[in-house]
Structure formats: structure tokens, C-alpha cells
């Protein structure tokens, strides 16, 4: 099952190879628009410049400069209803609790499969 072609995703990942792989996965799943950002500062600029919210923000947690929680904080100021999925290898309870209290909608634990990504995005597509 493919995702809606009208779906828009902001993908934030500082590792170029990982970002390109996830972008390919999103496009293969039928996502209509995948905006990419190489880091938190650039992502915040894209969020501030956006005329309308993305359907989903998919963001790496650990990045130099502004990390995933910093991006989430900025997103919630402008687009509080936008689902924010954190991509991470961190799974300790303190980190999970911190992200939940900040408003993260869900996690994708690295490495993740295309099926994991699709399942998460389908849940948000149904809510649109």
C-alpha cells in the first residue's frame, strides 16, 4: 500500500548517505514531496519559511548544532499539530521520557526497514 501522493515530509538527517536512503524509501512509498535538510539549523529555517505545515517531520535525534529536540521545540511553536517522528538509536528511558514530554509523536529506531517507515507514516496519513 502506498502513501498519499499529496503527503509532504520534511526529512532532517545530517548524514548524507542516510538522508538519501530515507528519501529514496519515502519516494518509493509514494510520498509526493520530500523536503530534505542536512541539519537542525537549516530545518528550522525551512520550517519558519514554510507557508503551510508538512504532513510529517522525520528527524534524526543526534546532530551537530541543533539536535532533534531543538527542531521539535521550534516546530511546536509554529505547527503544534504536525507529527514529529524521531529517528534514533537512543532508547534509554530518560531519553524517551524527555522526547515524549517535548511532544514527539513516535520513534523509528535505527536501523529501520521500509515496512517500519511505511507503518508509521500510514498512521498519520489516515489522520489527515
Secondary structure: elements and pairs:
Layout: E1 8-12, H1 16-28, E2 33-37, H2 40-49, E3 56-60, H3 68-78, E4 84-88, H4 93-102, E5 106-109, H5 114-127
Parallel strand pairs: 1-2, 1-3, 3-4, 4-5
Helix pairs in contact: 2-3
Q: In words, what does this structure look like?
A:
The chain is an alpha/beta fold. It has one domain (8-63, 77-127): Rossmann fold (3-Layer(aba) Sandwich), CATH 3.40.50.2300. It has helices at 16-28, 40-49, 68-78, 93-102, 114-127, and strands spanning 8-12, 33-37, 56-60, 84-88, 106-109. The protein has a five-stranded parallel beta sheet, with helices on both faces. β4 (84-88), α4 and β5 (106-109) form a beta-alpha-beta unit. α2 (40-49) packs parallel to α3 (68-78). The radius of gyration is 13 Å and the shape is globular. The two termini are 16 Å apart. This is Response regulatory domain-containing protein. Residues 8-125 form the Response regulatory domain. Keywords: Phosphoprotein. It holds the Pfam family Response_reg.
Amino acid at each position: 500500500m502506498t502513501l498519499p501522493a499529496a503527503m509532504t515530509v520534511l526529512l532532517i538527517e545530517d548524514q548524507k548517505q542516510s538522508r538519501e536512503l530515507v528519501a529514496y524509501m519515502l519516494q518509493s512509498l509514494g510520498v509526493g514531496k520530500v523536503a530534505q535538510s542536512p541539519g537542525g539549523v537549516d530545518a528550522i529555517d525551512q520550517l519558519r519559511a514554510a507557508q503551510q505545515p508538512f504532513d510529517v517531520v522525520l528527524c534524526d535525534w543526534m546532530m551537530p548544532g541543533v539536535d532533534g529536540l531543538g527542531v521539535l521545540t521550534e516546530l511546536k511553536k509554529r505547527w503544534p499539530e504536525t507529527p514529529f517522528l524521531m529517528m534514533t538509536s537512543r532508547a534509554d528511558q530518560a531519553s524517551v521520557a524527555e522526547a515524549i514530554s517535548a511532544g514527539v509523536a513516535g520513534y523509528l529506531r535505527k536501523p529501520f526497514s521500509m515496512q517500519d517507515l511505511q507503518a508509521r507514516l500510514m498512521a498519520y496519513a489516515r489522520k489527515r
